[in-house]
Amino acid sequence: GAGVSQTPSNKVTEKGKYVELRCDPISGHTALYWYRQSLGQGPEFLIYFQGTGAADDSGLPNDRFFAVRPEGSVSTLKIQRTERGDSAVYLCASSLSGPLSSYNEQFFGPGTRLTVL
Amino acid sequence: EDQVTQSPEALRLQEGESSSLNCSYTVSGLRGLFWYRQDPGKGPEFLFTLYSAGEEKEKERLKATLTKKESFLHITAPKPEDSATYLCAVVGGYQKVTFGIGTKLQVIP
User: Fold this and answer.
1) A4–B95 C-beta distance less than 8 A
2) What is the pLDDT of residue B94?
3) Mean pLDDT throughout B75-96?
4) Is B34 on the interface with A (CB under 8 A)?
5) B103 vs B16: CA distance, rounded Å
6) Distance in Å, alpha carbon of A73 to nearest chain B alpha carbon
7) Which residues are CB-neighbours of B14 under 8 A, at least 6 positions away?
8) What is the mean pLDDT of residues B47-65?
């Protein structure tokens, strides 16, 4: 299993609750991305990590969303006080190096489907 | 702001009927244009990266081409298993990845 993995595959929560979504990238990939995809839309960029640091978090919709990658490998996307509008598929991707490099093709995980009731 | 427009939104082909999908883009300093295939309930699967105008890449029945304003994904003699949503994305000088909404392809046997 050398691909990107995400857990859980499905998450159902109630409005106002806190959720954590996990991403395990391909070993050796320094860049990690989070996207959100709504039905019938393309993936929407949320945040990009290069190593342990967030190189670009401009896609996070508000301060309820936060992501970490403390050891430069596994990443966790955290959503506080969830709202019904947060319901979507959250995709994680990794690449060998950053988006401006020559090895920037991204490999995606299967996604976590988040439903906020 | 980088923009990606894909057309058509949906395409229905008979098996063996070749066609092309379009991806038009505006980006500040293109660093790469990507094509992905996405099956229902799954994450996007990488197909191609194109870096400069005039570049072409092929894989089985798929061929991707790039100009300064658009990219085409040509599908030759498609089979039902080619049915999927095809996504185009660009990376510009600001290193943000911008996706289009995709073209949903259905190939009828």
Assistant:
1) no
2) 73
3) 92
4) yes
5) 18
6) 19
7) B107, B108
8) 95
